[in-house]
Known about the structure:
Elements: E1 23-30, E2 33-40, H1 63-159, H2 182-192, E3 197-198, E4 207-208, H3 210-219, H4 229-232, E5 237-239, E6 249-252, E7 260-266, E8 269-275, E9 279-284, E10 292-295
Parallel strand pairs: 3-4
Antiparallel strand pairs: 1-2, 5-10, 6-7, 6-10, 7-8, 8-9
Helix pairs in contact: 2-3
Amino acid sequence: xxxxxxxxxxxxxxxxxxxxxxxxxxxxxxxxxxxxxxxxxxxxxxxxxxxxxxxxxxxxxxxxxxxxxxxxxxxxxxxxxxxxxxxxxxxxxxxxxxxxxxxxxxxxxxxxxxxxxxxxxxxxxxxxxxxxxxxxxxxxxxxxxxxxxxxxxxxxxxxxxxxxxxxxxxxxxxxxxxxxxxxxxxxxxxxxxxxxxxxxxxxxxxxxxxxxxxxxxxxxxxxxxxxxxxxxxxxxxxxxxxxxxxxxxxxxxxxxxxxxxxxxxxxxxxxxxxxxxxxxxxxxxxxxxxxxxxxxx
Length: 297
């Protein structure tokens, strides 16, 4: 056993009372700089200082910590900027898509309007062509109907030989059976046209209808006649069929509405453009008895 004995010596130091002072530590990052604020109550002057062993060390504020805090702020700001930029991009894309859809719709409507316009023009052209065709068809039908009437009248006369009426009409006198002067010129022209074709509406010289032949014949002697048979039947003085003279105009039908004319050439005969089947011919009065006559010479 050791000769030295350790005897504990009681400490006469009074236990330290808890410090009345209180401290608060506030730290933060402002504008990338770390700030520290310490607040506390006033410590009495006679207060004993705590030994180092009872003092806690405060964490050291280093440059790395401040830099980290600044980077966090920059990151947050950058993220916010990225969100805002993405929102602007999405809005621009949406507006561009809406504008493209609008232009496409307008182009479709314009194409439809143009197609409708072309269809209306085609329809109008077809209607005009149809109306023109109907007009031509109608005119051709009227012409054929008139030719048919004249042909039937001519054929009816050919089938029936008409005798001279017992009263009111007799054979022309001998005084009207010879042609002299202008009458002879008229008859000579008419005989020169014998055998030429009958064509409705034609005015010579290779073909005639009934009224154009009489008009052309009288033009040879300076007499101007109307073009159509209705007007020619009232152009001169009405004469009876029993007192005809060379050059008198014979008509069939009523005066003013005659449908056929010819020229008396004497000896009970006349020359006329009868119909498409006979052309210009010379016939006796009995071949087709006229209704009346007018004298223009």
